[in-house]
Amino acid sequence: KLKTISFFAKRARGEMCSYIIRNQIIKVDDLKLFNNKGYSFESEHNGEILFVR
C-alpha cells in the first residue's frame, strides 16, 4: 500500500514544477519522463498519473 508523506510530496511538487518549466512540458505524456530526486512515473491508477519514490 502506498502512502503520502506531506513533506516529501511538497518537495516533489516543487521539483516537478521546475522540470515542467525547464523542459517546457506541454503534453502529459512528456511529464511521464520526469525522473528526479528518486521519483519516477509508475503507472496510471484510476485515471491519475502516479509517481513513486
Q: Please give the alpha-carbon distance between the first and last residues.
A: 13 Å
Structural class: alpha+beta
The residue-averaged pLDDT reads 87
Main beta sheet: 3 strands, antiparallel
Number of strands: 3
H-E string = HHEEE
Tell me the domain tally: 1
Percent of residues in helices: 40-55%
Strand order of the largest sheet: 1-2-3
Number of contiguous helices: 2
Rg from alpha-carbon coordinates: 11 Å
Low-confidence stretches: none
What form results from the Cα inertia axes?
Answer: globular
Give the DSSP E fraction (strand runs of 2 or more residues).
25-35%
Tell me about this structure:
It contains two helices and three strands. It has helices at 6-23, 28-31; strands at residues 35-36, 39-45, 48-52. A three-stranded antiparallel β-sheet has the order 1-2-3, with helices on one face. Strand 1 (35-36) and strand 2 (39-45) form a beta hairpin. The longest helix has 18 residues, at 6-23. The radius of gyration is 11 Å and the shape is globular.
Give the SSE layout.
Blueprint: H1 6-23, H2 28-31, E1 35-36, E2 39-45, E3 48-52
Antiparallel strand pairs: 1-2, 2-3
Task: Name the features.
53 residues; globular; 26% strand; alpha+beta; 3-stranded antiparallel beta sheet; 42% helix
